[in-house]
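Repro:
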Amino acid sequence: METAYLDTFALVVESGSMSEAARRLELTPAAVAHQLRLLERELGTRLLIRAGRTVVPTEAGYRLADRAASILRDLRNIKAEINDEAATRELRLGAINTALHSLMPEVLAGFVKVYPDARIEIRSALSTELYDAVLRGELDAAVCLHPPFALPKTVSWEQLFEEPLVVMAPARWGKRDALELLRDEPYIRYNRSLGGGKQADDYLRKAGIVPRERFELSSLPAIALLVARGLGVSLAPDASVPWSRGLRLARLPLADQTYRRRLGIIWPRASVRTRLILALVEQARDVVSRAN
């Protein structure tokens, strides 16, 4: 079987469109259709049918789609196992947005000095999604929050740093009481589907504070900008990152310091790309050490 045709099939299923798959692959729609016909001929069954302007899998197509990701992943691992050059070039990395906006540019800058020919695919997602992707073998490593449960023995974890919750407020309110700000001023909520947002929500409930909610966002940079404009206050992880420098912000600590999110890197203990992964971990350690 021509694996490129299986890649094409998976992309068509994902996008629901031969034209979109052709655009991403930089092929013509006719070339994509030809590859799919050859794949159907080899497997001896119809894989896709048209449904209006989209294409959807047949029953056989759904069964192949369920297997395609693992088949392609196994083929990539086999390639890396028998071809050391490939293993030193490709790394599939996940990271939460906070990490991408803070330590990851510096980590990647150091990494490519060691492996200048590396090709790194970076996926941004929630910590829970990244954790699951590492367990499924879809990612080689992820910079994310520690899940709220014990990790299985099949993965390694290294904590890079902790971030306590702080009250972010416009600089002119920097001398006011933190809890008073949360009670009295418009509140900019860090999205409750995120780890830091859940911690903030738990703290408010424990403190008996019902804030006057104005906005809810999943982006710490956007929250910082809104706070700096005087549009409200927020309770969020103390992410001291480049985008916050120069903003007129006050960060007021809480008396209860038990609310902290743990950010680190997770990776499988057994991997054909262990050398690359450990080099990335070493770069992350170095960046955090220098920042401290």
